[in-house]
Amino acid sequence: MTETERRVRVYDDKNVLANAVAARFLKRIGEILEAKSEAHIVLTGGSMGEAVLATVARAKARDKVDWSRVTFWWGDERYLPSGDPERNETQSRRALLDSLGVAPERIKAFPALGEHATIQEAADAYAAELAAAAPEGARYPHFDLTFLGVGGDGHIASLFPEHDAIRDREHVVLAETDSPKPPAERLTLTLPVLNSSERIWLVLAGSDKAGALGLALAEASPNEVPVAGIGGRARTVFFVDKDAAAEVPENLLERERYWTAAHDVRG
Ligand SMILES: O=C1O[C@H](COP(=O)(O)O)[C@@H](O)[C@H](O)[C@H]1O
User: Fold this and answer.
1) pLDDT of 65-117, one tens digit each?
2) What whole-number distance in Å separates Cα of residue 161 and Cα of residue 112?
3) Cystine design at 241: which of 66, 85, 125, 205 (Cβ 3.0–4.6 Å)?
4) Is 205 contained in some domain?
5) What residues contact 161, with CB distance under 8 A and at least 6 apart?
6) How many domains does the chain have?
């Protein structure tokens, strides 16, 4: 795991959590675009990923962001036909992207089922798209911020416990063909690629996520609890509701700099 600062921020419930993350995102994207000419953001599927984007869509401050300088990628995708409501891309478009008027070439969705002869060709095509947007000599862009959800089993993106993909240190994009969570076929960035992101924000809510979060912070093996292996270059933040925080080991609260929303004003 990358040794960067990890923080846990706890909020009262899902709505407060989504509001807080959306507000922080709008602030952070503004700061990134002040410092750089363009930003690369990695989006996630899942319940909280969509809730955060929908909250961003409703925020007035979204109109202050120059979205034309932002490129959107995804950490993983359910390998389904284009427009399928279960695709992470479809959820993100519906929640936010369709209302931003971002140029189509800045929305870098994973290929959909039917666009390539095989799922492996689809994985290779996304790897090629990442490489085309990468700085010279690199295989993928410098991601400024990566959003991730966490499954109850500790999976992140489509990296599942005990599957080959979570151990992969060589590829940029992998095809997962035996996902325990439907659909069985998925495409995913690998752990080193996710961890190359400057910042990683994991957003999780609900008591079904408590065990995975507790184990991740107790330094479980990433092979068994994939989220335990996550660590951005500069900062990794777990944004959680009270239910998801229920099993964060007491002794880690200080070391992980556990703050309640009421006390925390840092970015
Ligand atoms: O299938 C997926 O699930 C996870 C978590 O989703 P949630 O609804 O339980 O929060 C998500 O992070 C991942 O991107 C997605 O493909």
Assistant:
1) 999 999 999 999 999 999 999 999 999 999 999 999 999 999 999 999 999 99
2) 24
3) 205
4) yes
5) 153, 154, 155, 223, 224, 225, 226
6) 1
Q: State the amino acid at position 104 in one-letter form.
A: P
Q: Which residue owns the Cα nearest ligand 1 atom 8? A: 46
Choose which residue among 52, 150, 243 to substitute to test ligand 1 binding: the one with the highest number of ligand atoms within 8 A of its C-beta. 150
**Residue 238 belongs to a domain:** yes
Angle between helices 14-35 and 47-58 (to 10 degrees): 70
| CA angle (226 as vertex; 225, 229 as ends), nearest 5 | 110
Of 88, 230, 238, best ligand 1 pocket probe by most atoms within 8 Å of the beta carbon: 88
CA dist., res. 256 & res. 267, Å (int): 15
| Residue 161 within a domain | yes
How much distance in Å is there from the Cα of 65 to the middle of ligand 1? Answer: 27
Q: Tens of pLDDT along 17-64?
A: 999 999 999 999 999 999 999 999 999 999 999 999 999 999 999 999
Q: Residue of the nearest CA to atom 7 in ligand 1?
A: 46
Query: Which atom of ligand 1 is least distant from the CA of 44?
Result: 14
Domain that residue 156 falls in: 5-262
CATH classification at residue 37: 3.40.50.1360
**Most ligand 1 atoms within 8 A of CB, residue of 52, 53, 76 to mutate:** 76
ipTM: 0.95
* Gap from CA of 76 to ligand 1 centroid (Å): 9
Residue type, 41: I
User: What's at 194, amino acid-wise?
Assistant: L
